[in-house]
Design brief:
The N terminus is likely disordered. The strands form two sheets. The protein has a seven-stranded antiparallel beta sheet. The chain is an alpha+beta fold. The protein folds into two domains: 139 residues, Pleckstrin-homology domain (PH domain)/Phosphotyrosine-binding domain (PTB) (PH-domain like); 37 residues, no CATH class. Helices cover 18% and strands 34% of the residues.
Amino acid sequence: MAEVYLRANPSRPRELIREALEANLEPDEELRWFSIVKQFRLPAPLRWHPWLQLFAVKHWYVGITPERVLFGRVKFAGEPDPSGVITVPVADVTVGRRGQSGGELLVANPKGGLPRELRLADGLDIDELEEALGKFKDVTAVWPAGWLADPTGRHELRYWDGTAWTAHVSDTGAQSGDPV
């Protein structure tokens, strides 16, 4: 629902998001980048069913400053909720790419209901996002071992052993092997 409103009224929601983020900035902080991201609450095969998306997708807005990343929930009709902003250090956030224009924001130490993985909007400039994060960060700096979004985009998940991506992959819960 929020996405439909955002597409139909592109300038007003951007203003509202910027205002909500700026209300949570420190006096000397600069907002480098902001956008809407999605949290999927269903397994990958069910995510794209149009009726299930109404209930399975939660929208968040995100803003990046030089020191921290601010996340907030988008309420009904595309309005940001400035009162519930969750902040994490910029070092705890990295980008998982899916091709040239797709990917996720990965949060190493989520808190306050913030998910570990948030899907970026289609067509978003990933290079611009990485620049806003201040560095082309490597997942090795912040991410513990575990199943994460496959950076190659060939599978739903790939196992990160804490130092490197492995050949262990998973699609809809079925594990298999595929070299990186």
